[in-house]
Design a protein that fits this description.
mainly alpha, about 65% helix, elongated
Length: about 180
């Protein structure tokens, strides 16, 4: 039998808007400062580079910033699902989803799988679009690839970047009635 741990305390995670603002600042810093002709230090790292090489370098940095910001967004999305899962256990709500989560908690505790267990419970006990859950699961594969070093060629079925993950986060916020933490 699984032993129930003490309650997890929650911090206020950054919102989607806060993460989008941070990403915008990073993007501007790359484009408007580091790679700007007005930057007094630009000649030093790019002294022998052509304009095309400088643009290519900038684009690589922008892609990396996009991937890092997307990873942060995906972590925040996962946190939303996990906090809701725990809250529904702690508050002992009487709806079908909360009951399903309590059964999962008795079996697996905090080691529950987001993709297999939590999302499946949402599908089974709440009116959420299966295509949205499929999109979340696919994005989690992207997160897995990012988090584990990107050493293999992923088969994701689509391209991901900050904007696609941000749009997914907005869809999640409107479709899933998470309990407040």
């Amino acid at each position: 039998m699984f032993q129930v741990a003490k309650r997890v305390s929650f911090d206020d995670p950054p919102t989607l808007c806060q993460l989008a603002e941070h990403h915008a600042v990073v993007k501007e810093a790359i484009c408007l400062y580091y790679y700007s002709p007005e930057n007094p230090g630009i000649r030093q790292p790019f002294a022998s580079d052509t304009r095309a090489e400088i643009r290519a370098s900038r684009d690589v940095r922008l892609q990396e910033a996009s991937a890092a910001s997307a990873l942060t967004l995906l972590a925040a999305i996962e946190a939303s699902f996990r906090v809701d899962y725990l809250q529904r256990n702690y508050f002992k709500k009487r709806d079908d989803l909360s009951r399903a989560f309590r059964a999962l908690y008795k079996e697996k505790g905090e080691r529950v799988s987001l993709s297999k267990d939590i999302l499946q419970a949402w599908l089974d006990h709440f009116d959420v679009a299966p295509t949205l859950v499929g999109d979340i699961r696919a994005a989690l594969k992207y997160r897995h690839w990012l988090a584990h070093g990107r050493y293999w060629d992923p088969k994701l079925g689509r391209q991901y970047d900050f904007e696609t993950i941000y749009n997914l986060g907005c869809r999640i916020e409107s479709a899933f009635p998470f309990l407040p933490s």
